[in-house]
Design brief:
Distance between the termini: 83 Å
Helix content: 40-55%
Structural class: alpha+beta
Number of domains: 2
Oligomer: single chain
Mean pLDDT: 88
Order of helices and strands: HEEHHHHHHEEEEHHH
Largest sheet: 4 strands, antiparallel
Strand order of the largest sheet: 5-4-3-6
Low-confidence stretches: 31-36, 338-345
Number of helices: 10
Number of strands: 6
């Protein structure tokens, strides 16, 4: 009476066997993830070879002007990149799997020509403007940040060829391009992968302004942003600690972190002061709105709003914004962080 009827007994054995298989498969994946997952690789074949190149030109704001960078992207590389399978499931050791996956995309030989041509254009601009290492990093970032953002949803990240020709991409697409460029120019770079928020950014070697406890300064690729600032357009706050995926350990590090920290603190202080002054102005009786006190408070409120607005509207000009804030502190009394010694940035 305790035995299952034959059909149910067979079903029980099948389910038990399947569950055992899943458990054993999971254990094997955790023990040897690299043995079971191949990394993506672009392969040019007869269906993608011989296609004409695509001219890609981008004008973008930098410092007190505009730069234009033009490169040719191989049509064959673009088509082959498009058809490359690259779905990502980080099982087992997520850091090991993540590094292998993204490094494979960053280091894919098919994209080398794009990196070389872009770097050649950036070096020409660097020489013409006499840029420091920090300003050169900001130039490269400003170029990629200026590419129109478009949420890719659950789609896998793009190769640089796709990002440039499509003229749009999301956070991981741009992070791959910037990280690949900076790595080839000798900077220390990691990827920051925020799982719960489904966001990706970068960390760079720096002597100041580290992000949380990572030891790296935050670098956003999504939209124009200062080094150290998560983009103002990021709708979800980054509450989780990122998975840190090393890309390169070059000798160049960012040495203007103190300046960007000062800019960040100033923006926060100006916003708070603007909020406080607005509340005081709203509480003024109607009869007092022609008074000298009211006009002084209004002037201070508007000045703080203008300072914050200037900071947010010039993320591609860190040296200029820092110099502007130093002048503002000397001109009038305003609630700003303490100044840091001039000339600490690179």
């Amino acid at each position: 009476m305790d035995e299952f009827p034959p059909p149910l007994r067979v079903l029980q054995l099948i389910l038990a066997g399947f569950c055992l298989f899943l458990v054993l498969f999971g254990l094997v994946i955790m023990a040897m993830p690299q043995e079971f997952f191949s990394v993506p690789a672009v392969v040019l074949d007869n269906t993608t070879s011989g296609l004409p190149p695509v001219n890609v030109s981008r004008a973008f704001p930098f410092r007190n002007g505009t730069e234009t960078v033009t490169v040719e992207v191989s049509g064959s590389v673009y088509a082959a990149s498009k058809k490359t399978h690259r779905s990502l499931v980080l099982l087992g050791d997520q850091k090991t799997a993540g590094v292998r996956y993204y490094r494979a995309m960053i280091d894919d030989p098919s994209q080398d020509r794009i990196y070389r041509d872009l770097i050649d254009r950036f070096r020409t601009i660097r020489a013409a403007r006499n840029l420091t290492n920090d300003e050169y990093l900001e130039l490269i970032s400003a170029y990629a940040q200026s590419i129109p953002y478009r949420d890719g949803g659950s789609r896998p990240p793009k190769y640089p060829a796709e990002l440039l020709v499509d003229n749009m991409g999301d956070c991981d697409d741009k992070s791959i391009l910037i990280a690949g460029l900076l790595a080839r120019e000798g900077y220390t770079v990691v990827l920051f992968k925020f799982g719960p928020e489904q966001h990706m950014a970068m960390g760079i070697g720096s002597d100041a302004f580290p992000y949380k406890t990572t030891g790296y300064t935050y670098l956003e690729g999504m939209t124009p942003a200062y080094v150290g600032f998560p983009t103002a357009h990021l709708q979800i706050p980054l509450n989780s600690d990122p998975l840190v995926l090393p890309v390169s350990s070059g000798t160049r590090v960012y040495r203007s972190g103190n300046e960007t920290r000062f800019i960040s603190d100033t923006a926060a202080a100006a916003q708070q002061r603007e909020k406080e002054l607005t509340a005081r102005l709203d509480a003024f009786p109607l009869s007092g709105k022609d008074s000298r006190e009211y006009r002084a408070l209004l002037h201070e409120r508007d000045r703080n709003a203008a300072i914050r607005g200037y900071i947010l509207s010039h993320p591609y000009d860190r040296p200029g914004v820092y110099a502007f804030l130093q002048r503002e502190m000397n001109n009038e009394t305003v609630l700003l962080p303490s100044a840091i010694p001039a000339g600490t940035g690179g």
